[in-house]
Amino acid sequence: MRHPLARFVVIVVAWLPVCFAIWYFTAPLLTVPLQWLALAVAKAGFSDMILDVEKSGSLFSFITNLRPASATSFSGGKAAVVVDARSLVYTYGLPLFAALTLAATGLKNGARLAKVLAIGYVVLLPFQTWGIFADALKQLAITMGPAISSQTGFSSFQREVIAFAYQFGTLILPTVIPAIVWVLTQRPFLEQMSQDLAETGK
After folding, report:
1. How does residue 72 score in pLDDT terms, banded at 50, 70 and 90?
2. Measured between alpha carbons, how far is 35 from 132 in angstroms, rounded to an integer?
């Protein structure tokens, strides 16, 4: 295949199933730092409501001190309301970034490949944490109903901000941020691609 852009797209498509498979099966390990970050955010800004962040596989559970709608009192000091967030919904940009990187870098330069993948992994962590945490807040402030949301103390404006953060973290960040990071880490490749396209007259 002579057209450079078409060749690149084919290589990306070929790498995608491999990268997604590796990501899916290694997600319990890859998401460990996300638990640390989510817990840090909870302690820093929501310690009066979120007591702990637990992880089982790739599922995050936010332990709160809120009472369920059917409860009349706390039981034994344990958190009454627990909300779950599935990290896979917010981390699928990582295998996408990996496939783009593999297509651009190839396997010949292993050191550069490892460096770029490591950079992408670290840079994506805060944005993935955003999505996971916004999901938990959205459930507490909006979807679980007034019996729970009234206990959070969020104003109507704050609930609107949470809803926006959730939509942004679900629809925009998982795909846009990996693409931006890839562009920033692949400038030589993109310059070469531009030259190749110019030579083909496309």
Report:
1. very low
2. 10
3-state DSSP: the chain helix, strand, coil percent, rounded to 5? 70, 10, 20
C-alpha torsion angle, residues 175, 181, 184, 188 (rounded to 10): -80
Q: H or E segment at 105?
A: helix 93-105
Residue 145: C-alpha distances to residues 9, 16, 60, 142, 166 (Å): 45, 39, 21, 6, 17
Residue 194 has what DSSP assignment?
Answer: H
**Would you call 66 helix, strand, or coil by DSSP?**
coil
Contact 85, 60 (CB under 8 A): yes
Rounded alpha-carbon distances, angstroms, from residue 20 to 30, 124, 196: 13, 16, 29
CA distance 135 to 87: 10
pTM: 0.90
Check residue 55 and give left, alpha or beta (phi > 0: left; psi -120 to 50: alpha).
beta
Give yes or no for a contact between 140 and 66, defined as CB atoms under 8 angstroms apart.
Answer: yes
Tokens of 130: 């955003």
How far apart (Å, rounded) are the C-alpha atoms in residues 169 and 174? 7
